[in-house]
Write a structure and sequence with these properties.
Oligomer: homodimer
Mean pLDDT of chain A: 96
Order of helices and strands of chain A: EEEEHHHHHHHHHEEHHHHEEEHHEE
Low-confidence stretches of chain A: none
Structural class of chain A: alpha+beta
Largest interface: A-B, 54 and 54 residues
Strand content of chain A: 15-25%
Distance between the termini of chain A: 39 Å
């Protein structure tokens, strides 16, 4: 049993109430390990943290250009979005460009992540469809890739069962994941993700290495390097699409632009590229907590490593050490990164 | 730093994806430790797991009888409820018996815990008030206690600031908590709970001891013993009130009646009385996860220790080892208690 360090703690009344253990790998594009906390060799299901890698074939294949996908649409292919109206609308627009409709999506439906979006839908008497699934943009991107792969065949017929590992479309997606992570996905643990596509277990340091490559292009074949740069720029140009109102990824990239590409995954996985530093980051929180543990840890890493002005440093500080308030708005504690995490060397 | 054992694991693709560490204390009414896993001496904020202890003065004082509180209303004083219409209505009825209205509650407002209740309110154009706060029954119980304590004074005036530790009402509540846990609350860490009342840190084994006393009455003063029995019976008679639709506490007590009194608290705290075994149980999940970690661990403890027929054992088994399904309803993994937890000795 691994015994990873405590990366994040929740304080109440001045004492630690709850603790989040985890592992952190920071690696450069050559594969050199910059920071290792905990067991970075353990293979973890990469989940939604690697959506940008799964979107590479869409761009490399030329399908994105053929269909004229916008920055918003490309950003949505990398997203775990809130299911806000703009997210659902943009997914629908991508499907329309491919000549199909919501019925083509195999991700399943769920109510939006954003509570206020749920209430607004309920107040209008609406129910969710696959467009509201947080993965609908990734799946719409798969559908667009499929429109290039189907050739003369009927697209709906070609797409049927695309979430299965052995489908030609999913083979392309998995091949990109394998190429960039450098991990043999045919001989690793495989699970089924929330949206029904396969998710592969990849050692944490290899995920960090993959994101260093995504940030710099180094070590990637030219088509992947160009595609990664295009996707990163699309997300920097349209950060609302990658998550949504109030979300960490959106807030950070709205503020820091192309200096950070970060992406949350389910079960406490978080990956980021820090292009200016030539580094990739991968975090796995042992207990699977996303919102409070992963984000706080990632904020600490960004604060330690990324070039920031004073205002930006203050902003990131509010994400790595934040007030916990109760139903009356009273501050009852703090949520903060521990000293195990990298710290900014005050200049 | 404590290094508690893994009590619950989430599996995907046959491998452990996430882990929940924690501590478990099972203690009898004499204070003898039956089971100890992890650091059971560490003081943890008891949060909402001890609402039954905080309701003892309401019953012991005679206020519950004077106001004619029903089983439903007494069960609600012990509740972290879903905010369903019946919960809000019952809280309102308690306030009316005391001669005040929602304005007397100092717990703050939040949308119901139950998603479908949120959507139904939104569809009707409603917004939440303090009656929907999961703690509204506890607070309505405080108000009813206040009606006995206020004497000839104006009740609203007497109640003002009742959530503060030094308010005469809260002193009564804290005194009951101290009497039953046997812990000196004047010299322990204190925080502010979600509903603004103080929450005290109590060693885990003392919480288990307190619940053994609640289950048997042994070691309690007569007034507390009678009040504890009345509250346990009220919850067994009206288990919907203590939580609500689909919730673990409600489902378990609907099925097992007075054989189990269990109560979730925030941040991964869970307490239970097992009266037939003369045991009390207290769990703290390190990472603060309630719904999946605490409940699975508590189900394993109940399955190991409580007298169950085959159907009941099967039912409890579905709570200690359960399928994780995705948005398409496909089973993608399991959530299960680890072998660190007590196991049923097959007869």
């Amino acid at each position: 049993m691994t015994n990873n360090p405590v990366l994040v703690e929740a304080l109440r009344g001045g004492v630690a109430e709850s603790l989040h253990r985890g592992a952190l790998a920071i690696v450069d594009a050559d594969g050199a390990v910059h920071t290792a906390l905990g067991d970075i060799e353990r293979a973890v299901f990469a989940r939604s943290a690697v959506k940008v890698l799964q979107a590479l074939p869409l761009v490399e294949s030329g399908a994105a250009d053929t269909l004229g996908l916008s920055d918003e649409e490309l950003a949505l292919t990398c997203a775990s979005h809130n299911g806000e109206p703009a997210h659902a609308r943009t997914s629908a627009a991508m499907l329309a460009k491919a000549g199909v409709d919501t019925q083509a999506l195999e991700c399943g439906a769920h109510w939006p992540y954003l509570d206020s979006a749920v209430r607004e839908m309920a107040s209008r008497g609406e129910v969710p469809c696959a467009l509201h699934n947080n993965c609908s943009g990734k799946h719409a991107g798969f559908v667009c890739l499929g429109s290039a792969m189907a050739g003369g065949r009927d697209l709906r017929g070609f797409l049927s069962g695309y979430v299965q590992a052995e489908h030609p479309l999913m083979r392309e997606v998995t091949a990109a994941l394998q190429a960039v992570t450098g991990h043999d996905l045919a001989h690793t643990a495989v699970g089924t993700d929330g949206c029904s596509i396969p998710t592969y277990a990849v050692p944490l340091y290899k995920l960090a290495h993959a994101f260093a490559r995504v940030g710099s292009g180094a070590g990637l074949r030219p088509g992947h390097a160009r595609a990664a740069q295009r996707l990163r720029r699309a997300v920097a140009a349209a950060p609302f699409m990658v998550a949504g109102s109030g979300r960490f990824d959106t807030r950070v990239m709205e503020r820091l632009g192309e200096r950070v590409f970060c992406k949350v995954g389910a079960e406490g996985v978080y990956c980021a590229a820090l292009p200016e530093q030539g580094l990739g980051v991968a975090i796995k929180i042992d207990d699977g907590n996303n919102a409070r543990a992963c984000e706080v840890a990632m904020a600490a890493v960004i604060g330690a490593l990324v070039r920031l002005d004073d205002d930006e440093r203050s902003f990131i500080g509010t994400l790595s050490d934040l007030a916990l308030t109760n139903w009356n708005g009273i501050e009852v504690g703090r949520l903060r990164a521990t000293t195990a995490l990298p710290r900014h060397a005050a200049g």
